[in-house]
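REQUEST ID: PR-0412
SUBMITTED BY: lab tech R.K.
PRIORITY: routine
TASK: structure prediction, single protein chain
INPUT:
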Amino acid sequence: MSEEKKLTEQESLELISTMIQKVKNSYHDTGIGSLLWGTVVFIASFVSFLRYRYNIDIGFDIWLLVLGAIIPQIYLSIRENKSSKAKRYDDDAIDTVWLVFGLTIFGLSFYQSTVGETTNRIIQEEGWAMMKHYLSGNKADEQIKPFTLSIYSLYILIYAFPTLVTGLVKKFLPMIIGAIITYVLFIFSCFTESQYDMLLGAIAAIVCWFIPGIILRKKYLAQKKSNV
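STATUS: complete
OUTPUT:
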């Protein structure tokens, strides 16, 4: 019977280093997650701003893109679980945070698109209507449909949550800074019109995810190249 081979100190360090590299190539550490959410939320927010500002009709709810972002996130997470022999516990926790975040954003979008129409149907059945009355008397009263007041401020507030969690767990300063900026943007959004809230949301997507995603992607590619 041959003797069991013992690892030298150098071989042990190399083995540990190899395992670390395997677990680093996660959905978030590669920058894919940040770039995905940064792109999707920026497009949805900016298009919404243009729609409110210039009365542009694109024919569908742009926030359905959020649902489209959840699908590749689930796919990539499943693929990583199958291909990775070693994965840190905090990666699973962060994946869960981002999945819940995506579902929450989609839920808010669904709420925003349905509650107004539902409320309008209910008040019509009850025989009354909401009116816009001009105090100056220069314009006639107008009937208006129910709508959610400045709900996009809540979107911006929620944007900061998964970003700050990821930044603190991964000790990644760009995401921590992005989350702090987003909290400041949320405060500003409480004092602005809804159309400008959309623009602030687009800025939040850039500082929260897109810029950190670019930094993560460059680091990942440089690291991958050096390990080849």
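NOTES: The longest helix spans residues 89-126.
REVIEWED BY: pending
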